Every structure is written in C-alpha cells, then in structure tokens.
Amino acid sequence: MSLSRNQIKAITALQIKKFRSQYKQFIAEGDKIVQEVLAQTHFPVLGVYALEDWVTRNEALLATRPALTVEIISPKDLERISGLRTPNQVLALLEQRDFGLEETTLTNDLALYLDGIQDPGNLGAILRVADWFGIQDVCCSPDCVDLYNPKVIQASMGAFLRVRVPVVSLDSIARQFSGIPIIGTTLEGNPLPHATVPQAGVLVIGNEGAGIRPEYASLLTGELSIPRAPGGGAESLNAAVATGIFCAYWRMGQTNA
Amino acid sequence: MSLSRNQIKAITALQIKKFRSQYKQFIAEGDKIVQEVLAQTHFPVLGVYALEDWVTRNEALLATRPALTVEIISPKDLERISGLRTPNQVLALLEQRDFGLEETTLTNDLALYLDGIQDPGNLGAILRVADWFGIQDVCCSPDCVDLYNPKVIQASMGAFLRVRVPVVSLDSIARQFSGIPIIGTTLEGNPLPHATVPQAGVLVIGNEGAGIRPEYASLLTGELSIPRAPGGGAESLNAAVATGIFCAYWRMGQTNA
User: Which of B229, B252, B169 has its CA nearest to residue B204?
Assistant: First the structure.
C-alpha cells in the first residue's frame, strides 16, 4: 500500500522539534534499533513502516505485538519518510514520555546532569555511556538538545530505551534532594584518580564550549577533573569522552594493577 | 578585495577528498583554530582569508609571519568559501603532510592505531584524547576517514596540529617494530582495571560497527576490554569514548583512592 501525502507529511514533520513537541511523537529508524524498540516497554509504539522483506524476517517479533499497526511500504515511500541518507528497511513511530524526578534513583545511585549539551552525537554517546555502566538517570537542562531528535536516537544505538531522561533544572534537583552530592566536572576540579566519583549523587557535565553555567556554581558540593598529561596540548576533552572517563572510574574504581 | 571565481572554486573544492588529495591542501576555519594554526609549525600555512576586523585584532600574531598571504575579504566572500553553517571570521589554507613511521615513538611510548574509523567527529575527538593525554602518534588505516576532512579538523579543536597521524597498515607496523605489544580493544578482551594498558606499544581501536578487522587478529599480542556493568544494556561504547577510557587508565594508572 502506498502512504498518503498526509501520512508522509506527519512523519517527516517529526524531524523538527516544534512538531515533535506538538504531537508528542518521535521516530526511530533501522533494522536493529526497531527490533529493540519492539522488545521494550519504555515508550508506546504507535506504528511500524517497513519493507515487505523486513516484515517477513521479523514475523515472530511482530507477533508479540498483535495490536500494532504495521504498514508494508515501498522503498520509494521509505525514502520519503526517512531522515537517513541511506534508509534502512524500517521506521518506527513512537510516543514521547516525560520522565519525572520522582522515578529517579538519585539518592542511592550515581546520576548524570547534562548542562546545555548541544551536539546530538554527544547526547547519544552519553546515553550509551550511562547504559553501559548501569547509570539509570541522565537528567538534562531544558536547553539541552532534544532527546527525541532523530540524530540523538540514532547515535544512542538503543540506549534511549533503557535510560531515564528527566528534563529539569539543577535547582529543582538540589531543592528536592537536599544534601546529596552535586559534583561538577571542570578543568580545575580535584583530579582523578586520587579524587573519586561519589557512589551516589549527581555528576554535572557542562556545555561543550562554555562548561557548567556560572549560575550553577553555588549548587556544586564538589568539583572533579581529568588531569591533562604534562606534555598534553588540548584545551579540553570532548564532552562524551570526558563523561565516559568519569563514569569508568566511578564504576570500575581505582584498583591497583 | 573581492575573491575571484577561481579562488573560490579552488578553496571550496577542498571540501572534497579527491581534490584535497590532488592539491595536497586543506582548510581550517574559525577564530580560535586559525590562531592556533598561525602559532604552529606542523603544517605550512599557504594563506589566510579573513574579515578586516579579524586582521586588525590579530595584527601582532600576523606580524610573526611576515611572508604570509593575508587576504581581507567580505562577509559575503567568507560565506562563499566557508564550509561552516555559520562562517566564523577567518579561514586558513594549509599544506598537507605525510607522516612517516620513522618519526614515531612507537617503541618507547603508547601509540593508537585506528582501524577503519569512519566518523569525522570520532576521529576529531580521538585526536583530542591523544593530545590531552600526551600520546604523540595516532596511526590510521588507509580506509579511515581523511585527517584533512574539514569536519575532522573542526572536531579536533586544534589537536591535529600537535599529533602525528601516519596512514599505514597494521602489518607494516608489526613488521617494522617487531616485538612491540599490539593490543586490540575488543568486547571480549581482558577487562580493565585489573588488566592494564602497556606503557609502550600500539593500542588498536576498531571500526565503529565492525570492530577490528579479522585479518588483523593474528597481529594482536593481547586484548583489552572495558567491562560492562552487570545491569548495563548497551552493546558497545562510542569509539572515541572507549579510546578516552583506555587512554585515561593508561595515563592515570590504577592508584587506590
């Protein structure tokens, strides 16, 4: 069956944040990611648009969701609705959800707070870091790139299905969980590995260029840094790379070799 | 002065690898990065195209290179030659260079070997990791994304000016430096932090999707991995993030807190 112009318009509109927020919907694309989408319960799945061949190969998986709308579409139509340069067999339409602070595990586990992360690839890579090291909450300031941006979803490689992403100010967290450690990652903080990441609390990652906003400085209960090697020249590390290093030291500890 | 059509064509052609390789030239854009370009001696600088205002503000720096061609151009012309969505004051034209294995420090320091890294953002972030931790050599397989790709240059934030990037097969390295450790980073390798990164040798980072190519398996003298947390879900970490974690443990060691 061919997709109607209105269907195509409704799906491609989700490339744009304004329409994603208005409809509270988003898309996830590609063979592997849609297989993960169908196996999860984090986000309601509204529909799947797939090439016939993909539907045939995934019959068993689709049978687990008998009520789901599955539209078999032509490669031409997939190209029309896809945001990828090379469309990949299938696209899923999902419903957004809001994550509340009340569901988080901030008081007994480490959580991340992203202060104005702008690059979709960075947010996606940070979600993978959290998912890899078993961090359940990646809180975002309201001016972070949208979790439901298709580039974030693709870069997260399915991690968005397992990590909670509340959008909230750091003030609200400090108010609601008064007394928990809120540790800023800065260039001047106490250096790893001798300084350690607290087992529970919030680790704050700043914006790619500007770092943590000055208004948040008074909320920080401590600061950590990754020391640059004596001969090192770079001014900073990529935000996702730095997050990965902090989380690795948090999870793996500093055991002597 | 207005740029000629031929000048504009010659510069914009450098967005494309074929022409970059043919002319052995590349571009670096933006206020900060061009300031670093003028302060380095890694790559010959062939010319600078800048707004009048930028030239005025950087007179002292430009005076250190009296022989350099500096063209004052209009915002319109900058837009014409820029590859950035938001052109940023200045563009430098540089000459490529080939890095030979004979200049490397493979036998007495750690070097990275990138096996088919495809994403320009990842290569840029990996160069920043190397630069931060004082790793001097980031060898690339011939099928890696081109170092001189403008997106790599921008993402490296100036790190490309301080790190050597020889393009070479892993076989050549193994032949030329017979006996040095060649450590693959894989999902099944010996886990950090108990297994350690050797102080000297080559750490091999695989392609974003496929990992290290099977033909290289017999060249590896060991394998390392970053253990996933028991509750962790992600299938892998982003290649630049993983590189950052390995290099952090290599440089900072595993000191007890």
Answer: B169
Per-residue pLDDT tens over the stretch A36-76? 999 998 899 999 999 999 999 999 999 999 999 999 999 99
A255 Cβ neighbours under 8 A, 6+ residues apart: B193, B194, B254, B256
Q: Are residues A47 and A109 in the same domain?
A: no
pTM: 0.95
Residue A109 in tokens: 């586990």
Cis before A193? omega within 30: yes
Cβ distance B257 to A155 under 8 Å? no
CATH number at residue B49: 3.30.1330.30
Q: Do B234 and A157 touch (CB under 8 A)?
A: yes
Distance CA A157, CA A152 (A): 9
Which range of residues forms the domain containing residue A155? 101-252
Contact assignment for A229 to B196 by CB distance below 8 Å: no
Residue B257 lies in a domain: no
ipTM over cut 0.90: yes
Parallel/antiparallel/unpaired status of strands B25-29 and B90-95: antiparallel
Tell me whether residues A237 and B128 touch, CB distance under 8 A.
Answer: yes
